[in-house]
């Protein structure tokens, strides 16, 4: 790394903290899942939020502040809270299942301005790496089913984009998991073999254990191994917008800048539920909670069960030595010696800007800072957090072949970073189903920083349940189901299960 003097990195104008030593793991320990104290929640930040790269690209799009009607309807059949990929897909399936019913979608801010519009642009199915952790938490059968479902989800997303010719910068190719340390490589090899022995499908994964060959394939200098399988990157806002535009043509009522505050009994209005917003009340018979990280702010049952946490993404403009025909052509999960992870999206089918997400040491420091400042747990106004950016800078300068001696001109380098709010699930997997004791209220949330590899099957699965189909019809892992027993167990647990963010 180039010498940058003695200036200490800082988080939101707060001096950085010293990280404790962490064991080398595959991002499956609590390092990558700094669960905030139970019960912490909040509503979407109104004003001052950072603008993701995806949202920067669509500032002229009228869908951002779309309102189908000037006033809120007083009464509808279904209210869907949240306009990200979950709410938008649930709306699509709802319209196809019950075309005669009227639906309102409420969005607290601009259309798709929550986690979907702020992620790093991946749809990367976990195909082996978290098997042992899921097995420990849920047993071998469910662990295998979780990983299979992620691959099914990826296939469903790609098929939708290709069949409908969605303009969303879709890339399909090999994603590479690359351990940077001998111990991490050893654990990765053992994990992979354990998954194989349990009957997990691995014939689609290309494995390279020779470090020299791994470095050649990955273009990462200190690669110790390389695991490659099919995945995608995309512009997530554009995909969601394409689906919502089709929904609008079918009659859905989208209301942006409308904060849903609570859901209460609607018996005195002749409907099951009243959704109260800052613009008035809506009476309805069905409510879908699709707000992910903000779910517990609206529904107190979910406090301590779904917890918000800020997460950073960095946009980097590569130097000329990594542009054009020399541009990076794969997405990555780089497994760091200290237990962290870089997720890398080079946008190689579009503008070539490289997105860095994941849980690097700087993100861990931000997590620790937010723990001490609980009022910031739903703050997606963080930008250019130097601790996180410095970790990205160290990685690219030390590890990416062709970067070390590059001279960065204006417009190149560490361009921008933004924050989004992850919805941590207390047991590491999402909640899909009807809220216990609240007939007609449904949820698909708690995606634990990995929603793009789950929602394209979870959202349609939820609508099947709403249509009185059995859980088996969803094809989802059993452990995703929202049940009274699961909810009660998590609400009384002193510590949440540690299943990591991918």
Automatic annotation (TrEMBL):
Pfam families recorded: DAO
Tree of life domain: Eukaryota
Domain FAD dependent oxidoreductase: 77-453
GO cellular component, as recorded: cytoplasm
Protein name: DAO-domain-containing protein
Species of the source: Melanomma pulvis-pyrius CBS 109.77
Species classification: Eukaryota, Fungi, Dikarya, Ascomycota, Pezizomycotina
């Amino acid at each position: 790394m180039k010498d940058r003097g003695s200036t200490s990195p800082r988080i939101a104008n707060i001096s950085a903290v010293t990280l404790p030593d962490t064991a080398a793991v595959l991002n499956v320990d609590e390092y990558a899942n700094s669960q905030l104290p139970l019960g912490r929640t909040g509503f979407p930040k109104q004003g001052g939020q950072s603008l993701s790269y995806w949202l920067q690209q669509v500032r002229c799009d009228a869908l951002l502040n779309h309102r189908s009607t000037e006033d809120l309807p007083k009464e509808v059949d279904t209210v869907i809270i949240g306009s990200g990929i979950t709410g938008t897909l649930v709306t699509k399936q709802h319209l196809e299942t019950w075309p005669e019913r009227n639906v309102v979608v409420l969005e607290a801010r601009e259309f798709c301005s929550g986690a979907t519009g702020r992620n790093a642009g991946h749809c990367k199915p976990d195909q082996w790496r978290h098997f042992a952790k899921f097995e420990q938490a849920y047993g071998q059968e469910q662990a295998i089913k979780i990983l299979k479902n992620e691959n099914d989800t990826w296939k469903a997303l790609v098929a939708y984009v290709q069949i409908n010719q969605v303009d969303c910068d879709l890339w399909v190719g090999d994603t590479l998991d690359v351990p940077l340390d001998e111990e991490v490589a050893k654990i990765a090899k053992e994990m992979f073999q354990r998954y194989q022995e349990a009957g997990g499908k691995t014939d689609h994964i290309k494995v390279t254990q020779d470090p020299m060959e791994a470095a050649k394939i990955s273009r990462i200098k200190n690669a110790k191994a390389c695991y490659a399988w099919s995945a995608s990157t995309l512009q997530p806002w554009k995909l969601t917008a394409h689906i919502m535009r089709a929904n609008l043509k079918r009659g859905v009522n989208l209301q942006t800048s409308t904060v849903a505050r609570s859901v209460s009994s609607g018996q005195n209005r002749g409907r099951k539920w009243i959704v109260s917003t800052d613009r008035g009340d809506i009476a309805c018979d069905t409510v879908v909670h699709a707000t992910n990280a903000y779910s517990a702010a609206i529904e107190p049952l979910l406090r301590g069960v779904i917890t918000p946490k800020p997460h950073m993404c960095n946009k980097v403009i590569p130097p000329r030595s990594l542009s054009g025909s020399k541009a990076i052509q794969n997405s990555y999960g780089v497994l760091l010696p200290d237990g962290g992870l870089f997720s890398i999206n080079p946008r190689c089918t579009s503008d070539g800007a490289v997105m860095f997400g994941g849980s690097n040491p700087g993100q861990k420091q931000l997590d620790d800072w937010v723990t001490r400042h609980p009022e910031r747990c739903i703050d997606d106004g963080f930008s250019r957090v130097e601790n996180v950016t410095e970790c990205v800078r160290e990685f690219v300068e030390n590890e990416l072949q062709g970067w070390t001696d590059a001279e960065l001109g204006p417009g190149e380098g560490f361009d921008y970073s933004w924050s989004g709010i992850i919805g941590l699930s207390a047991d590491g997997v999402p909640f899909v189903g009807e809220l216990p004791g609240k007939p007609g209220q449904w949820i698909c949330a708690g995606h634990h920083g990995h929603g793009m590899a789950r929602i394209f099957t979870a959202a349609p699965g939820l609508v099947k349940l709403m249509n009185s189909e059995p859980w088996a019809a969803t094809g989802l892992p059993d452990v995703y189901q929202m049940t009274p027993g699961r909810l009660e167990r998590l609400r009384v647990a002193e510590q949440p299960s540690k299943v990591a963010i991918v």
